[in-house]
Amino acid sequence: MKKGEWTFLTNHGRVLAYIAKNPERTTQEIAQEAGITLRAVQKIIAELEAGGYLARRKLGRRNRYVIHPEIPMRHRLEQDHAVGDIL
Question: Which fold has domain 11-85?
Fold first, then answer.
């Protein structure tokens, strides 16, 4: 993306949407697809998990993520909508 361009989704939204479609991808794969650092993805996943938006399930040495689409969005203007409405 060129400097000055903008997108509709935040990195949190982008990571959550990617995980919803690809629940068994590694954090490295998510970072590569989202165009952000591995550390940023790890932090975002931890925040989404703490907020109840996703859960992590162990599959051997890997994780499988489960989205909780019924959780309301965080911003007061969007709280009437569940996160699943945008996924």
Answer: Arc Repressor Mutant, subunit A (1.10.10)
Q: Is the pLDDT of residue 40 over 70?
A: yes
Q: What is the pTM of this model?
A: 0.89
- 57-73 per-position pLDDT tens digit: 999 999 999 999 999 99
Residue 20 near residue 34 (C-beta atoms within 8 A): no
DSSP 45-81: HHHHHHTTSEEEEEETTEEEEEE-TTSBPSSTTTTTS
Domain spans in the chain, listed from the N-terminal domain onward: 11-85
Q: What are phi and psi of 56, to 5 degrees?
A: -105, 130
Q: How many CA atoms lie within 13 A of 19 on its CB side?
A: 30
Query: In sequence order, what are the beta bridge partners of 15?
Result: none
Tokens 């697809």 appear where? 33
